[in-house]
Write a structure and sequence with these properties.
alpha+beta; 3 helices; four-stranded antiparallel β-sheet; binds protoporphyrin IX containing FE; about 30% strand; Alpha-Beta Plaits
Length: about 100
């Protein structure tokens, strides 16, 4: 059963935030080879919110934890610049088989 992990990133001054989107675009393949990684999308808020959702899907929770603990470096390697995001909240789900 796949799992979904969403990281909600708060951005100052609301969306869109071109710099945040450019940073994700520059690293969009950085997680491709992680075992169990099934895809991610960067979701831009359109209803007046100030949080982008980083929607990620994984084959198992263990795969996500392994990436987080060992392999997320390429996605999150320091860029030498100040982060855009001012906060982050993690949400975890199982995909319900219907
Ligand atoms: C659910 C899994 C993920 C977690 C737990 C996570 C965690 C985080 C956190 C805590 C931040 C904020 C860091 C800060 O503001 O200093 C962040 C930012 C970022 N993440 Fe992730 N992330 C996830 C998935 C991804 C994926 C799949 C990518 C793919 C490239 C990615 C790329 C980035 C980038 C480029 C930023 C920089 C945003 C900025 O400049 O403020 N993240 N991530």
């Amino acid at each position: 059963m796949s799992i979904v992990v969403i990281n909600a990133l708060s951005v100052p001054d609301g969306a869109p935030n071109a710099e945040l989107e450019a940073r994700f675009a520059a690293r969009k393949h950085a997680v491709d080879s992680a075992p169990g990684f099934e895809g991610f999308q960067l979701l831009r808020p359109t209803g007046g919110g100030d949080r982008y959702f980083v929607y990620t899907q994984w084959a198992s929770r263990e795969d996500f934890e392994n990436w987080r603990q060992q392999g997320s470096g390429k996605a999150h390697a320091p860029s030498g610049t100040k982060p855009v995001a001012t906060g982050a909240e993690l949400m975890e789900f199982e995909v319900v088989e219907l």
